Amino acid sequence: MAEQIEASVAIATAVARCRPEVLCAYPITPQTHIVEALSRMVRAGDLAPCEMVNVESEYSACSVAIGASAAGARAYTATASQGLLYMAEALFNAAGLGLPIVMTVANRALGAPINIWNDHSDALAVRDCGFIQLYAADNQEAIDMHILAFRIAEQLSLPVMVCMDGYVLTHAIEPLELPSQEQVDSFLPPFAPRQILDPDEPMTIGAMVGPEAFTEVRYLAHLRQQEALDAIPALAQELSERTGRACGGLLSGYRTSDAALVVVAMGSVLGTLEVLIDEMRGEGLSVGALAIKTFRPFPRAEVAAALGGAARILVLERAIAIGAGGVLTDSVRWALGARQTPLHTVIAGLGGRPITRRSLRPVLEAAATGGLGELHFLDLRQDLVDRELARCRSSARPGPHAEAILREIGIVGAGPV
Amino acid sequence: MSAAADRSPQAERRDEGLRFYQTGTFAVGGRLLAEHQRTVQSQPRRPSSLTKGHRACQGCGEALGARYALDAALRAAGGRLIAANATGCLEVFSSPYPESSWQLPWIHSLFANAPAVASGIAAALRAKGREDVRVVGQGGDGGTVDIGLACLSGMFERHDDVLYICYDNQAYMNTGVQRSAATPPGARTATTEPLGGHPGNDFGQGKSAPLIALAHEIPYVATATVAELHDLEAKVARAMEIRGPRYLHLLVPCPLGWGSEPSETILIARLAKESGLFPVFEAIDGAIHAVAKIRRQVPVREYLRRQRRYAHLFADGGREDVIDRLQAAADRNIVRFGLLEGSAPLAGDLLGAPAPGELDDLSGAQAP
């Protein structure tokens, strides 16, 4: 039965029902409500035996999770944005050691300029760290993906990142269904680690490996992620059978089977897209959307199949690969192989800029008719950019862009330069 | 030292007020001592944390210190000990797989995070109700004093149940002897060449990790050297009797980085203490309660001249000015920590200094 609940609290409850043994986190917006809720549960004794470690940095958060997981405990942490990058070194290490840590990423932009709102720059910046990356399209899926994440992580001995859009999802209050403790227990067996620090069977973990074996160790990590391409849909199906609803997976298509134009996207923008697609379908436009739910491992064959009927593809990017274009675009292009399907990249919603149907509609229409360029920035204020470029040309020391543009649009009460 | 059950000549002399300076401190095997006072290493059935086959240099102070410290911790923990190791010499020379020298469960994660990994292990053990298993975090001075300090401070202030051991060889030896925040002034490293009037490493830099640990008011902070192995073992044993964060800062000479004879590692460590350059003390609950007294202060030049990292101080007319400043630093430690017999630490000048009359003597003459 659905209950009206803040998504962060629902995520915390879902994590709690996975019976974690060590929780560790450092506060960062917009992840805070999740760990605050978990902290309350631990302090109240509701999760016993479970330890909550309030660390001094995200770097330590991931490191505590590494130690806890290596000692055989089910470990969880959550972060976002700068915090995710601050733990970057430890992310690669946790994955390299094959430790099944589960982490929520409340997706948020990266500075500078500092920005606390949602986009996918953070998780995509560490896409190759070796974590499995799941992207939730809505909060119900985010809840289910966390339960799925612990099972995937422990079955494959790989860490999993559950990415959910900061604020848009984390701070929404809506009716959500929480899997019961019995449902979770029947789906998620106790953690049986593949490796453990145990005085009865002393083991060296984290030894140096030279060129003689490094490639093989890395290849095995890749192979295990490839195994996840089979495991994720199977486990998602298994969870679905318990909950009676779709619970994540690799992909999901929305009216793609006969769509001439398919929009590929990740995260909460899928909700907006579905409404827009229904509108446009009503007008006779052949449009569909493909949600990438698992970005690492990238489901190449599945994406290729899902896009098989598309005459044109639009990849809606929630991050920018500066100097290149789109991150998701590269993967989609790779999936297409030799196929020369026309492909447009649209960079949208950076730093929390709303992605509205009104803005998207003309872009989709242009894409459908071949009138859109290869790389398009949704709602880019070209007038502001032009004025800032002119200002920079007129001065030897024009100062930073961010402050100048804010002055230009009058958001802050700054006076003349 | 309590009177041994047997009336050895040494015990009788001690009772007569004589001090037997070769006992307990410098005699590793300790065969002159009563059974219970002997070192862990002298026991035929001693634990062995770091076994043969590792690739440490000849005369490596860190290998010696790690073995003594961890074996003592293993004995105190009844063999139930897990170690988290920072990247560095100790990690590299002990674990080029499949040739691990570690006989206890051991994990290496990263350079800066050993204290946090140890905290995570401790949290896991607590959650699992496995408080019989103890946790040690360890690293070199770079991994501890520089890049790992934030993790270490967090581990201290959260009161996590970890003994952290810093093996201080006063520079980044693993990467080729570059300066760390534990490099002493005047020392030549690959990044503190004595060029352009610089004395080697500059004066007025660096930090004392033991005093930083002390400022956290954690239950146990101690310094030690590999010259006084009874003292080292006794400190590890005391630390293991305590729960919560504990810090042991161990001076481990590095023949490669210091340019010293491998055969003189113990001697040089002893001179570091006996000159006053490296104060050996023990603090409980934020208060220094004991220092290792110095019977006769050794001039710092006796310590310096045995190490090529200080050779520039003695070559081409020398740098008497630098040697004088180093002597002044040693003299300051002598006064500040009350290192000479009959003196006490300066209460107003040293964090955690005890009140007069509350100081124990940890010197080799009376230890353990």
SSE arrangement:
The complex is a heterodimer of chains A (417) and B (368).
Chain A: E1 3-6, H1 7-17, E2 22-25, H2 32-43, E3 51-54, H3 58-70, E4 75-79, H4 81-86, H5 88-96, E5 102-107, H6 121-125, E6 132-135, H7 139-156, E7 160-165, E8 173-176, H8 181-187, E9 204-205, H9 214-243, E10 251-254, E11 261-265, H10 269-282, E12 287-292, E13 294-296, H11 300-306, E14 312-317, H12 327-336, E15 343-347, H13 357-368, E16 375-377, H14 382-393, H15 401-409
Parallel strand pairs in A: 2-3, 2-4, 4-5, 5-7, 6-7, 11-12, 11-14, 14-15, 15-16
Antiparallel strand pairs in A: 1-8, 6-13, 10-12
Chain B: H1 9-15, H2 61-76, E1 81-85, H3 89-94, E2 106-108, H4 114-127, E3 134-140, H5 141-146, H6 149-157, E4 163-168, H7 209-215, E5 220-225, H8 229-240, E6 246-251, H9 255-258, H10 265-274, E7 281-284, E8 287-291, H11 300-304, H12 320-337, E9 360-361
Parallel strand pairs in B: 1-2, 1-3, 3-4, 4-6, 5-6, 8-9
Antiparallel strand pairs in B: 5-7, 7-8
Helix pairs in contact in B: 2-8, 4-6
